[in-house]
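[step 3/7] fold_predict: job queued, chain A
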Amino acid sequence: MANGDTTVARLWLWVRKARATDWDARFAEELPRVYNFFRYRVGAGPVAEDLTGITFEKAWGARDRYREDRAGFETWLFAVARNVAVDHFRRAKATVPLEDVADLPGGPTPEEIAERRSDERRLAALLAQRSERERELLAFKYGAEFTNREIAGLTGLSESNVGTILHRAVEALRADWDKESEDG
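[step 4/7] structure written:
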């Protein structure tokens, strides 16, 4: 047999197997699993049922393209189900009429963004003037949002000491901020 004849023979073999598959039995066997897949994705109810039905419709329509030599039946069927889910979520993206958006508050203006960035740079410069310990405690408190007790556990300081250092550091930062504002 020539190489082309071997390829044709292999293709005919999988076509025969696909035609000989008991599709009704395979679908009935996998129906609960496909439905449960959609239940986990969209919740129980009519949407999961509809997506399950769509999956089996698409699989039935594509049954001639199923190739047993490339993937197991379950893998192929769940690839179809996954594509149905992706299509569903893509279509389900929320859309809002333009008239409804007119009353929504907008995001920050470019001026507000520039002011915030300026404030952040100013705060960073003021923080750089604080001691390493104060910067670390401020980062734990306001950056990582730890409690004083958690900070104490991390640093080995007492909770009371953490609170005192943070209070003094914040007061010093406020004073420096106000002084710069007056001078600026």
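[step 5/7] annotate
The radius of gyration is 32 Å.
The mean pLDDT is 82.
exit 0
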